[in-house]
Specification:
This protein is mostly beta strands. It is built from two helices and twelve strands. The strands form three sheets. Strands 4, 5, 6, 7, 8, 9 and 10 form a seven-stranded mixed sheet that branches. Strands 1-12-11 form a three-stranded antiparallel sheet, with no helix packed on it. A two-stranded antiparallel ribbon has the order 2-3.
């Protein structure tokens, strides 16, 4: 299965950047389904979800079992482990559903607006970036069921 997307152009500190952002469905333990924007980050060691979003979805995590992490800028923040069901779809095409291990960002004031899809997401897909043409493709890994 092949999903093609255009990069989103955004201003970041006054500079126009191309960001690989996709809409995904998140399925909560409480039956809630949310559609959110997620950024593909091949440099991220894990999929990162804001605490507020994890709480809204009633994800299970232990806020006392803390792990240290660093942002790409080297800023430390505190996380904890959880898991998340994600559905990727494009238009009326078939969708791909999978469960990923994720980290919940526990830091107040250090939240981000998007779900960050890191290495635990990339394990399910082959990603082809074509930045000169502002495009990228997500292809299911061999054997992945739709």
């Amino acid at each position: 299965m092949n999903f093609a997307y255009s990069c989103k152009k955004q201003l970041l500190s006054g500079i126009s950047v191309k960001r690989p952002i996709i809409p995904v469905e998140l399925h909560g333990n409480n039956g809630l389904v949310l559609v959110v924007n997620a950024i593909l980050d091949s440099g991220s060691d894990f999929t990162l979800i804001p605490k507020e979003l994890a709480d809204e979805l009633a994800l299970e995590y232990d806020s006392m079992d803390k792990c240290s992490a660093e942002s790409y800028e080297g800023e430390p923040f505190t996380t904890t482990k959880s898991s998340l069901r994600i559905i990727v779809r494009k238009g009326r095409q078939q969708s791909l559903m999978f469960d990923v291990r994720c980290m919940v960002n526990l830091e107040e004031g250090k939240q981000h607006s998007e779900l960050i899809l890191g290495s635990t997401f990339f394990g399910y897909f082959r990603i082809h970036f074509n930045y000169p043409h502002d495009r990228f493709q997500i292809l299911s890994a061999k054997g992945q069921q739709a």
